[in-house]
Amino acid sequence: MIIAELYGKISSKLEDTEDILTSNVFSFFKYSDRIFLKEYLRQIEIEVSENDALKAEFLFWQKYDDRTEPDLIVICGKYYLLFEAKYKSDFSPETSTLASQIDREIKMGKLAAKNENKEFVYVAITAEYYKDKKKYAKYENKDFKFIWTNWQTITNFLETTLVSQSLFQYREYANDLVSLLVQKKLRSYIGIINLSVNKKINFHNFVFYNKNTSEFKGEFSGFIESLGQFAQIENYKKSFHNSYFDTLQAFTINTYENIFYNGN
Questions:
Q1: How many angstroms separate the CA atoms of 37 and 41, rounded?
Q2: Count of CB atoms within 10 A of residue 150's CB?
Q3: DSSP 8-state class, residue 165
Q4: Nearest residue to 25 (alpha-carbon basis) of 155, 214, 220, 210
Q5: Residue 257 and residue 66: Cα distance in Å, rounded?
Q6: Phi, psi of 93 (to 5 degrees)
Q7: Vertex 236, ends 233 and 241: CA angle to 5°?
Q8: How far apart are CA 131 and CA 124, in angstroms?
Q9: Does an H or E element contain 263, and which?
């Protein structure tokens, strides 16, 4: 499905659903080396062993007795992890007859975790760049662990893993998944320190363009050539003056005059 999406071979209606996105992303963690699952869970502050990750069970779209259907359950080590994923939609709100989606999933998830003798963790994964503290405040500091994260965290995790590990057999799989997430604009700002310029930049001695080769004449030609008219002030190496200013007389400024063009 990843390749089909990358090449635009599936319906745009399917591309925008969190179900397809959830399938593509978490299939990687299910079918690739489980060290990636272990390290990703560490990113969201869930510590498991390599053996726990190896034996982890993935349950997609399991339906509870109240017909609530979380996107993914991962049973890993001592944890019962309930993932509810959102992409271009939001969590269903409370209605006059029904509790909110998160509240219903927490209720049923806690019961299921108790039956499995596991520690319940709710993971809300969205496309938001930052956590909306007001939105999730009511779920903090309860008798279970509530985690908010986003798809961008997965993109950054995979990119970092691709850089830090020189060679591994799932590189192509991970590269394609990263390409898909970037195509969906699910990538965080990583800072200008990571920018690389592959094309040589030619520097010129004018600021905007060359006045001698410009199609139009009389335009502002930049500062570099103009600064050449200035003479250095004695004893001040970094200061300049122009004798023209010494002879200036009082004058009236025409507010309609164009300061960059000569008007001809």
A1: 6
A2: 19
A3: -
A4: 155
A5: 75
A6: -80, 170
A7: 30
A8: 10
A9: none
Number of residues that this document lists for the chain: 264
Residue 211: which residues within 8 A CB-CB, separation 6 or more?
217, 219, 221, 222
In whole angstroms, give the CA distance from residue 62 to residue 71. 7
Of 89, 110, 90, the C-alpha closest to 100 is 90
Q: Which pTM was predicted?
A: 0.71
Average pLDDT over the chain, rounded to whole?
82
Q: Residue 123 in contact with residue 147, Cβ under 8 Å?
A: yes
Euclidean distance between CA atoms 24 and 177, whole angstroms: 8
Q: Which of 3-12, 30-39, 165-174 has the lowest mean pLDDT?
A: 165-174
Tokens of 246: 């010494």
Are 147 and 85 within 8 A, CB to CB?
no
CA angle 34, 21, 162 (to 5 degrees): 45
The CA R_g of the chain, rounded to the nearest whole Å, is 30
- For the segment 249-256, the average pLDDT, to the nearest whole number, is 60
Determine the Cα–Cα distance for residues 257 and 240; give it in Å rounded to an integer: 27
